Amino acid sequence: MQHNQHLIAVANLPFAMSSKIENLEVKEVTTAKPAPKAPADKPENKPKEPGPKHDKHDKPKAQLHQLASYTGTVGEYGANPDGLYDRFTLATTGATHTVRFPLPFGQALHAAAQPGAVVTVLGYLHPTPKGDQHVHLASLEVGGQPLRPTPAGSAAEAFAVAGTLTDLLLDPQGRLRAVRLAGEPAELRFPPHLGEQLADYLTVGAQVQANGPRRPDRPGELRAPGHPAPLQPELLTVGGQSLLIR
Q1: Which of 135, 138, 67, 70 is nearest to 109 (CA)?
Q2: Is pLDDT above 80 for 128?
Q3: Could you give the CA distance from residue 168 to residue 181 in angstroms, rounded to a whole number?
Q4: What angle do CA 214, 125, 231 make, to 5 degrees?
Q5: Mean pLDDT across the stretch 60-87?
Q6: What's the burial of 243, exposed, middle or buried (CB within 10 Å: 0-12/13-18/19+)?
Q7: Are 161 and 181 in contact (CB under 8 A)?
Q8: CA proximity to 88, closest of 100, 105, 96, 80
Q9: Res. 180: pLDDT tops 70
Q10: Cβ neighbours of 110 (radius 10 Å)
């Protein structure tokens, strides 16, 4: 009898336990997460300061180059990857130079200075990515005839003037902007950013030779009498020193 009572008590136990468990409120236990760390200041995370804007159509400013003379014999002509002549070798006393010239000058130059011709090149040295130096041609003389490259597609007439410098013309900032030569009505005008460099060479009384393209007035413009268009020289010779503005 006692054994049966024990079985009954055990049989009834799950129901009692179940009743209690169903009435319990189970609360979800959450673990506190660490606060996210602020990102380290890395160069790529910092805002970039706006730099100067450059228009892709802006032309680079002209520079002033001191020129030297190279006399020698023309060797082989060389072409660029497109097959256009852009250089030739020049054998001078004790050295061989590579002379670079503008592509539009190739036809006239090749016709006048064949390999074997003795020429005098006026140019300036320019380093190459390989570490050597090429001579950039400003003008060439062959058989007593001077040759100068002209801009591609330019219809401008070339000019050549020479004389004694009589006047220095300054801009409002006091920089040299132009000069006048005795007997030449048109002024020789220069880029403003080169005025300070040119002032070291151009002084009153100096003997000056200048060459360059004589640019015509634009369509629709009307020039007053007695006001010739200013000349913009590309090649200057002052006191035996030749200068290229390019």
Answers
A1: 138
A2: yes
A3: 10
A4: 15
A5: 94
A6: buried
A7: yes
A8: 100
A9: yes
A10: 15
End-to-end CA distance of the chain: 125
> In which band, very low, low, confident or very high, does the pLDDT at 135 lie, cut at 50, 70 and 90?
very high
pLDDT tens digits, residue range 187-246? 999 988 898 899 989 999 999 999 988 888 889 999 999 889 999 999 999 988 999 998
Task: Say if CB 165 and CB 187 are below 8 A apart.
Answer: no
Residue 128 CA, chain-centre distance (Å), reads 15
- Average pLDDT taken over every residue of the chain: 81
- Write down the pTM of the prediction: 0.68
Edge to edge, the sheet with strand 207-214 lists 64-66, 241-245, 235-238, 207-214, 157-170, 176-181, 188-189
Among 177, 185, 230, 233, smallest CA distance to 208 is for 233
% residues pLDDT > 70 (the chain): 74
How far is residue 186's CA from residue 198's CA, in Å, rounded to a whole number? 18
pLDDT of residue 209: 95
Q: Identify the DSSP state of 25.
A: P
- List, in order of start, the domains of the chain with CATH numbers: 64-147 (2.40.50.140), 157-217+229-245 (2.40.50.140)
Rg (CA), the chain: 41
| pLDDT at residue number 111 | 95
Position 157, amino acid: E
The H or E element spanning position 68 is: strand 68-79
Contact 99, 122 (CB under 8 A): no
Residue with structure tokens 């300054």? 170
Please answer whether residues 179 and 162 qualify as being in contact, where contact means their C-beta atoms are separated by less than 8 angstroms. no
